[in-house]
Amino acid sequence: MSLELDPGATGTPTFTITPAQLSYYDRTMTLRIDPGEAVVTVGPDASSGASALITVTE
User: Fold this and answer.
1) Does residue 24 fall inside a structural domain?
2) What is the domain range of residue 26?
3) Nearest by Cα to 52 from 35, 32, 37
4) C-alpha distances in angstroms, 21 versus 6, 33, 34, 37?
5) SS3 of 49, please?
6) SS3 (DSSP) at 31
7) Which of 50, 32, 30 is nearest to 40 (CA)?
8) Distance of CA 14 to CAs 1, 3, 24, 58, Å?
9) pLDDT digit string (tens) for 10-53?
10) pLDDT in the model for residue 44
11) Has residue 36 been placed in a domain?
12) Has residue 55 got a pLDDT over 80?
């Protein structure tokens, strides 16, 4: 996703993080989504973006 703005303009992007985007296959190839906290970083790269803590629940 990208948000195109004119120089000096600000904007607020909105997006949804789906369960599929947080899932992974374990060693037995079972699709899993583990509850807990995760950090989501949005920006031009991970070192200079804005971060938010999200909580994954069952």
Assistant:
1) yes
2) 16-41
3) 37
4) 30, 9, 12, 14
5) coil
6) strand
7) 50
8) 10, 10, 24, 23
9) 888 888 888 888 899 999 999 999 999 988 888 877 788 888 89
10) 79
11) yes
12) yes
By the 8 A CB rule, do 23 and 31 touch? yes
- The alpha carbon of residue 50 and the mean position of all alpha carbons in its chain are separated, in whole angstroms, by 11
1 has pLDDT over 70:
no
What backbone phi and psi angles, to 5 degrees, belong to 21?
-75, -15
Domain-embedded: residue 2: no
Contacts with 13 (C-beta within 8 Å, 6 or more apart), sequence order: 1, 3, 42
**Full-prediction pTM beyond 0.90?**
no
pLDDT: which is higher, 1 or 39:
39
- φ/ψ (deg, to 5) at 33: -135, 115
The total number of structural domains in the chain stands at: 1
